[in-house]
Design goal:
RmlC-like_jellyroll, Ammonium transporter 3 family protein, RmlC_Cupin_sf, 2 helices, UGlyAH_Cupin_dom, Jelly Rolls, eight-stranded antiparallel β-sheet, mainly beta
């Protein structure tokens, strides 16, 4: 599992026991066709790609640095990230948004 300068964590081919523990099959699904998408993550997202291939570039920079992930990867995207998703193979994923730590104060 590795983190990069964008703060995205990619775990390749997590174990079936980890996927079961996270209850991923009960998470909502989302998909998109190949293309470029500008996205802003207002909450931390954890997702598991069933299929697809994505390169994520930080928005508003001229850097060529990117993070790549695809089918079989478990990915954590940090809250507040503005980026461009360059999707070369259509994406089908399970996802969930983690509540921000501010919400925990209400309990």
């Amino acid at each position: 599992m590795g983190e990069n300068s964008l703060g995205i964590v990619v775990e390749g081919n997590p174990s079936e026991s980890k996927l079961s523990e996270l209850n991923i099959k009960c998470w909502p699904k989302w998909g998109c066709s190949p293309g470029r998408y500008q996205l802003k993550f207002d909450a931390e997202e954890t997702c598991y790609l069933l299929r697809g291939k994505v390169r994520v570039y930080p928005k508003g920079t001229s850097t060529t640095e990117c993070v790549e992930f695809g089918a079989g990867d478990l990915v954590i995207i940090p809250e507040g990230l503005s980026c461009i998703w360059d999707v070369s193979v259509a994406v089908d994923k399970h996802y969930k948004f983690d509540p921000s730590s501010d919400d925990d104060d209400d309990q």
